[in-house]
Structure formats: structure tokens, C-alpha cells
UniProtKB/TrEMBL annotation, chain A:
<protein>
    <submittedName>
        <fullName>Uncharacterized protein</fullName>
    </submittedName>
</protein>
<feature type="region of interest" description="Disordered">
    <location>
        <begin position="114"/>
        <end position="180"/>
    </location>
</feature>
TrEMBL record, chain B:
<keyword id="KW-0460">Magnesium</keyword>
<keyword id="KW-0808">Transferase</keyword>
<comment type="pathway">
    <text>Cofactor biosynthesis; tetrahydrofolate biosynthesis; 7,8-dihydrofolate from 2-amino-4-hydroxy-6-hydroxymethyl-7,8-dihydropteridine diphosphate and 4-aminobenzoate: step 1/2.</text>
</comment>
<protein>
    <recommendedName>
        <fullName>Dihydropteroate synthase</fullName>
        <ecNumber>2.5.1.15</ecNumber>
    </recommendedName>
</protein>
<dbReference type="GO" id="GO:0005829">
    <property type="term" value="C:cytosol"/>
</dbReference>
<dbReference type="GO" id="GO:0046872">
    <property type="term" value="F:metal ion binding"/>
</dbReference>
<feature type="domain" description="Pterin-binding">
    <location>
        <begin position="18"/>
        <end position="271"/>
    </location>
</feature>
<dbReference type="GO" id="GO:0046654">
    <property type="term" value="P:tetrahydrofolate biosynthetic process"/>
</dbReference>
<keyword id="KW-0479">Metal-binding</keyword>
């Protein structure tokens, strides 16, 4: 590792529920307001970013050859922002160990580009529709051309020491910055809590679900006080029992923003403040929509 | 087939449309409601009710189909014309159909604001479609085997009932177009029980896809009819389930308009078939997707 950690200016956490995908929409939304809330949060989190890193888990119940649901949800939400940026997709095994998540988190926003044993990455470009100069989003774009484009625009993965993250304006209401004004990196983390919160939940009721879910929400809520570190305390076996599909991505997130043991000295840790937190469980699955911003 | 477009009033529909036409009788003696909407206020209430229940079209009838006391044109007009005018005023966007075979009645109701002439007796009055053309109204052509209006079928046989239905309906539809009814305003109806025994109506139901394939919008009037009653040996009043089964089969075959007494149940069946057919998304989907 070069010792350089890219500045993560924003972190946004969204549910990975397939019911957010257009191909599963009925005539009325199953969870009214959820999609809108996700798009709002993602838009606020990416409007100053030139680069987005999506962190999602592999499917726990793979039966098809389609891309992971979490990846598709992330891409759908990013496309719905109608903003342009480059995107990395980081896939973490849903049952990855904490150590694997830590390692993946370190390289996720770092300069190291090679795949890691616990996950894989792919790259693509999002562009607002109607912008003829920028190629439209195409999953699986040739990685080298994407990399070249990023290099031409300047170093998105600037060193932590020198980069000043341009975070002017209000993130929720402000006009989207033009591409040249946007230089930050946003982490889009697709992660849910337990799917065993109620009798009618997909995994039926497990009384332990509430405690684990509370720990996740509390960790995000106390991000300004280093709370994200506590995401690393989530127990993989217990979370697997409770169908917490977001455990591994959340631990990658924690690592990516500097939590956990480090082998190199990358300077002061960035603190994050909570800009938005919507928590709901309309179907007995914990949905979290959260937006964290680097406190500059 | 999938390119089918038809127009009723100012609205346009396609091959995937499944519309509910609610029956409101201005008669004291129709077989099913037995005069329930004979009083004008009761009829207005019924129209409001079916509109609230999601009916796309209301079909007003002034003469019961079965034999009975003769009702002249003036008496028929007295039953329906002012009623149609008042309906039009209260429900500006509602599609209004009038069940009549008489051209003079057709003219009066179109002047009062009706959109559709439901010629339930198979062109008994050849001037009816000319009136429809004059007003740019839609017309429903029906197969009756050529019987006189308000008569019951007795010992009628066909070599091939579906062939007779197709031949008669294509001829009527072509004539309607030839006198100036826009092609997309012509609807065809095999007319279950009209000039038909139960075997005939069952065959028409079983082979309804042949009618749909002709490329005209297809109306079916199945509601609580004798072919349902005889199939299940059930009297009027106990034929809803059978009616809905026939409705589902007709919908699967691709019929477009359903003339019914029970709007809520029909709407549910049609929506369910549309969802299964992939013509309509489910209302709200979360199972396995949360």
C-alpha cells in the first residue's frame, strides 16, 4: 500500500431490498417513500463527488446468473440521481470474515487496485442522460478506459495529506456542483439489518434481532464520536443467523473510513457527522437510509 | 392483434384493455334486478355506486330482453333519454351506452350525450348504425341468429355456431364501417343466450379467441345468464361464481368489454387475469422482495 488513503467525503447507506428495483414494481410502491428517501440520500451524497465506490454483499441465496441484487439496487439509485461520476463496484462475500472486510475496506478507497481474496471489484461510468460528451452508464465498461478517463480528469484518489475536499454549499438543497467542482469520493454502502424482526418477517421473529439492529443504528448515529468502529464488533455468525445481509458491507465501510487496526500511519482519522438517518422495517427487515459527511 | 386500438367516447383503448360495463336497467321487470332501478332516484344511486366501484362504462336499458308487454319507441325514450342527459351532466367523463335496437331511440340518446349504442338485437333496425355514424358514436354489433327482438330461441340449430357468429358479426361490422362508423368505434358481441341454447353459448365461450382474432374489440355479456344457470343447475341469484369463471375464461381469450351486474367482483377477476397475462403489474409486491 502506498500509505495514501483517498478522502471519503460522503458515506451513504441504503437498503438492498429488491422491491426497490424497477423490474419488481407493482402499480403502487410496496414501501411508500422508501425509494424516494434512498434517491434523496444518494443524490445528496454524490452531488459533490466525481467518484463513487459501491460496496455491496454477494447474494445470500444465489439462484440466478444475474448480478448481485445489492449491485443492481446501487446502480438503480445512482442512475436515478441523473448525475455523472465514475463508479467502482466492490463486492464483498456476505459471509466474509471481519478480517477480510477490514482488508477489503483498506484497499477500497486506497490506491491499491488489485482484487482481494474476499471480494472483487468492477468499474463503470455513470453520466447524466442527455450529456453527449460523456458515455452513458454501461455496466462492465472496459476497466482500462475508465481508469484512463479518471486519470485524465486528475487524481480522484488524491493523497490524504494534500487533498482538500470541496464541500461547499448545503448537501441536501444546494445545486449540484459542476463536474469540475466535484472531486470527492462517496461510499455507497448497500446494507440491511436483520430480516427476522417480526413474526411476519422473511426469517420469522428472532428476539435477538432488535439488539443487533440497535447496535447498527447506534453506530451510525454516533459516527461523529467514532461510532463506526463498533460496526466491527458485529458477530458474523450471529448476523448470519439473524439474516443481517448488511454486516459485511458495513464492516468494509468501517474499515474504509479508517476504523480498525492499521499497519501504516495515514494521519488523523476523519470524523463523520450524520446528515440523515431514516430507519424503518415495514416488512420486518431493518432498512437504514443514512448519509454521513466528512466533518472538515 | 396487439396493434388493436379502439375508441369509446373520447377515450382510446388497446388490445390489453379489459373494461367493465355496468348494467343499469330503466325497466320494472328485467330478469336479474326485477325493477330495482325502475325508480329514477334508485337508478341514479346505482350509477353513482357502479362508478365508485370502478365501472368504465354504464349500459342503460329501457326494455327487458325477454318477451313481455310491448314497449313502443316513445315509451322507451321516456325511460332512457332524460336519464342519459342527467347522467351526462353528473358524470361528464363517464362512458354511457344505451341498449336499444331502435334507430329513433338511438338518435335521441346520442343527442342526450350517450357514447355507445348497444345493438343487442343484431341489427334488427338497419338504420341504427347510420345514426351511430352520424354522431360519431360507437356501436356494438351482436349475433342473434337473426331472431326477432325479444324472442327466446326455440329449437335453433347451427352447423357451426362460431362460424355463424363470425359471419354475422363481420357482416354487421363491415356494414357499420361502410355507412360511416369509424372502424375503431365498432365492437362485436357473440351475445350469449341470444338465439342460442346453452350448448351454443358454451361453445362461443370456449372458442372466443376466434372472435378476438378478427381484430375488432370484443364485448361479452355473460352476467347471470341461463347458460351459466343450466351449466351449474342454479337459479338466478346464485350464478355469480359461474359468471366469474366464464369471465375469467373470456378474459384469458382476450375479450375487451364485460357487461355485468356485479362490478366489484368482475373488476377483481379481470385485474387478476390481466396480472397473470402480464398485461398489468400486480397492485403491490413485497413477498420475497423485502
Amino acid at each position: 500500500m502506498s500509505g495514501a488513503v483517498a478522502p471519503v467525503s460522503d458515506v451513504v447507506v441504503v437498503p438492498g431490498a429488491p422491491l426497490l428495483l424497477p423490474e419488481y414494481q407493482g402499480r403502487a410502491a410496496a414501501a411508500p417513500g422508501l425509494l424516494e428517501s434512498c434517491v434523496e440520500a444518494v443524490r445528496a451524497a454524490v452531488e459533490h463527488a466525481s467518484h463513487v465506490v459501491v460496496v455491496h454483499a454477494t447474494d445470500r441465496e444465489p439462484r440466478s446468473t444475474r448480478p448481485a441484487i445489492g449491485l443492481r439496487v446501487a446502480d438503480h439509485l445512482l442512475a436515478a440521481t441523473h448525475l455523472g461520476f465514475t463508479v467502482d463496484h466492490v463486492s464483498v462475500a456476505w459471509d466474509a470474515s471481519v478480517e477480510e472486510c477490514l482488508e477489503l475496506g483498506r484497499v477500497t478507497v486506497g490506491a491499491v487496485r488489485e482484487p482481494t481474496p474476499a471480494g472483487s471489484r468492477s468499474e463503470s461510468v455513470f453520466a447524466p442522460p442527455g450529456d453527449a460528451k460523456t458515455p452513458p452508464f454501461a455496466a462492465g465498461d472496459d476497466a482500462s478506459s475508465v481508469a484512463a478517463q479518471r486519470d485524465a480528469k486528475g487524481s480522484v484518489f488524491a493523497s490524504a495529506g494534500g487533498a482538500k475536499t470541496p464541500l461547499g454549499g448545503t448537501p441536501h438543497r444546494g445545486r449540484p456542483a459542476s463536474t469540475s467542482e466535484r472531486a470527492g469520493t462517496t461510499l455507497l454502502v448497500v446494507a440491511d439489518g436483520s430480516a427476522r424482526r417480526t413474526e411476519k418477517a422473511p426469517g420469522h421473529l428472532d428476539p435477538r434481532a432488535a439488539g443487533v439492529d440497535d447496535a447498527i443504528v447506534d453506530a451510525l448515529r454516533s459516527a461523529h464520536m467514532g461510532g463506526l468502529d463498533r460496526l466491527l464488533d458485529l458477530d458474523p455468525a450471529l448476523c448470519a443467523d439473524l439474516l443481517v445481509s448488511g454486516r459485511a458491507p458495513l464492516q468494509v465501510l468501517a474499515s474504509a473510513v479508517g476504523a480498525g487496526p492499521r499497519t501504516d500511519a495515514e494521519g488523523a482519522r476523519t470524523a463523520y457527522r450524520l446528515e440523515r438517518l431514516d430507519v424503518s422495517d415495514p416488512f420486518g427487515v431493518l432498512y437504514v437510509v443514512a448519509h454521513l459527511m466528512a466533518a472538515v | 392483434m396487439s396493434a388493436l386500438t379502439f375508441r369509446l367516447g373520447s377515450r382510446e383503448f388497446d388490445a390489453r384493455s379489459r373494461l367493465v360495463m355496468a348494467i343499469v336497467n330503466r325497466t320494472p321487470d328485467s330478469f336479474y334486478d326485477k325493477g330495482a332501478t325502475w325508480r329514477q332516484e334508485a337508478a341514479f344511486d346505482r350509477v353513482r355506486e357502479v362508478v365508485a366501484q370502478g365501472a368504465d362504462i354504464v349500459d342503460i336499458g329501457g326494455i327487458k330482453a325477454a318477451p313481455g308487454v310491448e314497449i313502443g319507441a316513445d315509451e322507451e325514450k321516456g325511460r332512457v333519454v332524460d336519464f342519459v342527459a342527467a347522467m351526462r351532466e353528473e358524470h361528464p367523463d363517464l362512458l354511457i351506452s344505451v341498449d336499444t335496437w331502435r334507430a329513433s331511440v338511438g338518435r335521441a340518446v346520442l343527442e342526450a350525450g350517450a357514447d355507445i349504442l348497444n345493438d343487442a338485437w343484431g341489427g334488427a333496425d338497419p338504420e341504427l348504425v347510420e345514426v351511430a355514424a352520424e354522431f360519431d358514436a360507437a356501436v356494438v354489433c351482436t349475433h342473434t341468429g337473426g331472431v326477432t327482438p325479444r324472442t327466446r330461441p326455440h329449437r335453433i340449430e347451427y352447423d357451426d355456431v362460431m362460424a355463424s357468429i363470425v359471419e354475422s358479426l363481420v357482416a354487421q361490422a363491415d356494414r357499420a364501417v361502410s355507412v360511416g362508423v369509424p372502424r375503431e368505434r365498432v365492437v362485436i358481441d357473440p351475445a350469449h343466450d341470444f338465439g342460442k341454447n346453452t350448448w351454443h353459448s358454451l361453445e362461443a365461450t370456449r372458442r372466443l379467441d376466434e372472435l378476438v382474432a378478427l381484430g375488432w374489440p370484443v364485448l361479452v355479456s355473460l352476467s347471470n345468464k341461463d347458460f351459466v344457470g343450466e351449466s351449474l343447475d342454479l337459479p338466478v341469484g346464485e350464478r355469480l361464481t359461474g359468471t366469474l369463471a366464464a369471465t375469467a375464461i373470456s378474459a384469458w381469450h382476450g375479450a375487451h368489454i364485460y357487461r355485468v351486474h356485479e362490478v366489484v367482483e368482475t373488476r377483481q377477476v379481470l385485474d387478476m387475469v390481466s396480472v397473470i397475462a402480464g398485461d398489468l403489474p400486480p397492485a403491490r409486491v413485497a413477498r420475497g422482495l423485502a
